[in-house]
Amino acid sequence: MNSSPEYSLVVQNLKVSFRETDGVLQVLDNVCFNLKKNEFACLIGPSGSGKSTLLRALTGLIPLESGSIEFPEVHGRTPRTGIVFQNANLMPWRTLEQNIALPLELDHIPQVEINSKVKEMIELTGLQGFEKSWPHELSGGMAQRVAIARSLVQDPDILFLDEPFGSLDELTRERMSEELLRIWNEKRKTILMVTHSIPEAVFLSDRVLVLAGFPQGIVLDLPVELARPRDEELRYTPEFAQAAATLHEHLRI
Amino acid sequence: MATRTRTQQESPSWQRVTHQRWILPLISLLIFLGIWQLLYFLLDLPTFILPSPAIVWAKFLEVLNNGMWWHNTSYTLLELALGLFFGSVTASVLGYVLSKTPVLEKIMSPFLVGSQSVPVVAIAPLIIIWFGPGLFSKVLICSLTVFFPVLVNVLVGMRQVSQDLRELMDSFKASKWQILHYLEIPASLPVLLGGLRVGATLSVIGAIVGELVGSDRGLGYLINLGRGQYDTALVFVAVFSLIFLAASLYSIVLFLERRALKWQTWQEI
Q1: Contact B264 A89 (CB under 8 A)
Q2: What's the domain range around A177?
Q3: Which among A59, A89, A134 has CB closest to B164?
Q4: Are residues A15 and A62 in the same domain?
Q5: Mutation target vs A (from B172, B179, B265; most A CBs, 10 A cutoff)
Q6: What are phi and psi of B77, to 5 degrees?
Q7: How far is B264 from chain A (nearest CA, A)?
Q8: Does the first or last residue of chain A, that is N or C, have fewer Cβ atoms within 10 Å of its Cβ?
Q9: Over 90: is that where the pLDDT of B262 sits?
């Protein structure tokens, strides 16, 4: 409706249902929110909730029952979106650099341009020296870096991340969070990231959306007003704990 | 890892020699030839029942020099090459079409199941009756032999394509052709090539049965000729040529498989 340029995404009254053998299961109902330009938002909710479903609906992978999803134009064109899944989802028969190049190849971009963009992404995500590696030779954290590089190679305006660090160990996960913040700082994108980790959500985002209830809706829209740039120290401050406690309270119901 | 390196260093030299992958097969082959030669001396059988390795070798040199060997071997090779090519290409194309149209796959399923239970060699005589003893019927038999394993494997391979990667391609708004080219073909290639490997060895049997039933050229014809003239050494030459042909075909497919699948970790077979 009011697609003012300061918004990257406007979602209104979103409703998603799945047809099951024994009737229709309503997963999302009356979901309303919007993302400001270049905002880093996290979507959090109890496991098994409709978080991933919401993200899939936003990226057009599953159909809506009703409601609207609007991406206001950027510089007079439809904004591009990128997505990172929970699994790195690399093609095992393509090398690291070929995996990053995939979306560009599908878009029929000239090879010279592909090479320079892939090189830039490899530098951005710190994967130099592994260009010719096969996916089975990579660690979980590196594979997820490749997935992030692949999602960024088309220079999307909005990036959707579906629990991208969910399968990584705690230490790798924290390092990847910091890496993601660095990349976001450098590239300035609107990011919506699904997570089930409260500290991760608080550490990363400007805003945390809590998805809860059944069918699911946004029950809390919490701004996180912690100073940036953020580093490890932040995790041990009272403000951080305060925000985490608020989220914890809303997730328990 | 570290312990492995140490045991390799400490192993005695004969063990290191046996690690060479051609040494042991070669030794077993020599022992086989030795026993054969020994049997020849001990049993004192007439040459038309059991010729010695030396006689077989002499026969081989004879047919090699008068051009008979190449004249027949090249013909069988041609049947195999054409049969494998047409069989695997049509099976791959049909396999991808069927996997995209489940209705067609259901219609075809009785033939697929039937083909798995009846060996093509059993209908080889029929094909010779229908299409004559020429090159065409042999190529057809070879094609059919390789056709069904490849077709079935393409269907299996397509069903195994990762759902997550399909979703990834959807998120890039890839077209049907792009999904086929970038995802489905490379993902199902390992299974397809596995089918080709099975089909390649089977098609040698197909070609020979076709030639035995009716032909005037080829290794199967050579076997028939040798049998008719009680020239058992010639039969042996033909049989060994066949074994050599089948093993070479198998190695070629295996080589192609490794080239195409270099992204997988290969272990020595």
Answers
A1: no
A2: 7-80+156-252
A3: A89
A4: yes
A5: B172
A6: -60, -40
A7: 8
A8: N
A9: no
pLDDT at A66: 86
Residue A136 touches partner B, C-beta closer than 8 Å: yes
Question: Is B138:B218 a contact under the CB 8 Å cutoff?
Answer: yes
Q: How many domains does chain A have?
A: 2
Of B164, B165, B172, the CB nearest to A103: B172
Q: In which residue ranges of chain A is pLDDT below 70?
A: 1-5, 48, 253
* Residues in chain B closer than 8 A to A105 (CB atoms): 182
Q: Give per-residue burial for B247-258: e unless 16+ CB within 10 Å, then b.
A: eebeeebeeebe
Question: In terms of domains, do A70 and A11 share one?
Answer: yes
- Flag whether residue B182 sits within 8 Å of chain A, measured between CB atoms: yes
CB contact under 8 A, B164 and A106: no
CA distance A152 to chain B (A): 12
User: Are the Cβ atoms of A106 and B186 closer than 8 angstroms?
Assistant: no
Angle (nearest 5°) at CA A168 between A162 and A174: 90
- pLDDT given at position A173: 87
Contact B182 A85 (CB under 8 A): no
Locate the chain A residue with the closest alpha carbon to B163. A89
Check whether residue A130 and residue A116 sit in a common domain.
yes
In whole angstroms, what is the distance from residue A12 CA to residue A8 CA? 13
User: Could you read off the pLDDT of B115-151 as tens digits, one per residue?
Assistant: 778 877 788 888 989 998 889 999 999 998 899 889 9
CATH superfamily, domain B53-260, is MetI-like (1.10.3720.10)
Above 90 in pLDDT, residue B183?
A: yes
Q: What angle do CA B112, B116, B122 make, to 5 degrees?
A: 115
Domain shared by A177 and A138, yes or no: no
When comparing pLDDT for B19 and A42, which is higher?
A42
Using CB atoms within 10 A of its CB, is residue A229 exposed (0-12), middle (13-18) or buried (19+)? Answer: exposed
Give SS3 for A223.
strand
Q: Does A93 touch chain B (CB under 8 A)?
A: yes
Strand partners, A19: A24
Is A1 inside a domain boundary? no
Q: Assess whether pLDDT exceeds 70 at residue B10.
A: no
Given CB atoms, is A83 within the 8 Å cutoff of chain B?
Answer: yes
A60 with A42, same domain: the answer is: yes
What number of C-beta contacts closer than 8 Å exist between A and B? 42
pLDDT at B15: 63
- In single-letter form, the type of residue at position A15 comes to K
Q: What is the ipTM of this complex?
A: 0.85
Query: What 8-state DSSP symbol labels residue A236?
Result: G
> Contact A85/B261, CB-based, under 8 Å?
no
> Is the model's pLDDT at B73 over the cut of 60?
yes
Question: A63 at the B interface (CB within 8 A)?
Answer: no
